[in-house]
Amino acid sequence: MTFQRTIQLFSLTTAYSILLCIESGKAQTLYQQTGDSQLTISGTSTLHEWTMTSKEGKYQANFEVDEKGMPSKLNSLVLKVRSESLKSGHTGMDKNAYSTLNTDVYKTITFNLASATIVSTKIQCEGSLTVAGVTKRISVDAIFKVLPDKSLQCSGSKKISMSDFEIEAPSFMFGTVKTGNEMTVSFKVILVPAGK
Predict the structure, then answer these.
(1) If you ran DSSP here, which 8-state letter would residue 3 be given?
(2) Quick one: the chain helix, strand, coil %, rounded to 5?
(3) Buried-most residue among 1, 114, 118, 152 (CB within 10 A)?
(4) Distance from C-alpha of 66 to C-alpha of 28, rounded to nearest angstrom
């Protein structure tokens, strides 16, 4: 082997090692939710405000993170919530909500990420939200914090209209009480690296 060939091989090996170091500094990590996570839908009615909460949301996210666990890029995110896991604490209201959402047919509420931008501790997301079989493109922002164990605490909210998803606002007590068209979807989730 000539001296020039040896130098070329050394240069290629060095460059490859540098690239590996750079990539290892921003590894892709799959995250999933812990049992402390919850999703809430709230709104108003002609009688009082209402809230329905689920702790059964299934989140799966793929982040690029540095050695300190700080995300630099969100590559994918999927959220699935079983519709009938949403509970208000009032059986009658739950039944009306499930009927309105047609949960016999459409058993889950889902969100699939299309794109995301991370600026400081804010994640700006664009994706598709599917409710009662109707899919709409929405944008939603989340704030995150890296916890000491490198898990991520994320929270945010988004106002949506029932009519955008072809949902007729449910009524109660023979139509004397009717819910408003607008509702707020809020989430608070702790994401941990899969396998932990």
Answers:
(1) H
(2) 20, 55, 25
(3) 152
(4) 9
Q: Which residues lie closer than 8 Å to 152 by C-beta, 6 or more apart?
A: 31, 63, 69, 71, 144, 145, 146, 190, 191, 192
pTM as predicted: 0.80
DSSP assignment of 69-137 equals --EEEEEEEEEEEEGGG-B-S-HHHHHHHHHHHTTTT--EEEEEEEEEEEETTEEEEEEEEEETTEEEE
In sequence order, what are the beta bridge partners of 31? 61, 193
Confidence of residue 113 (pLDDT cuts 50, 70, 90): very high
The pair of structure tokens assigned to 148 is 């000491």
Residue 50 carries which side chain, given as an amino acid letter?
Answer: W
Residue carrying the six token digits 């072809």: 166
87, two tokens: 């509970």
Contact 166, 132 (CB under 8 A): yes
**Distance, CA of 176 to CA of 159 (rounded, Å):** 25
Q: Which pair of tokens denotes residue 162?
A: 């029932």
Given the DSSP bridges, would you call strands 50-54 and 38-45 parallel, antiparallel or unpaired? antiparallel
Question: Per-residue confidence at 168, pLDDT binned at 50, 70, 90?
Answer: confident
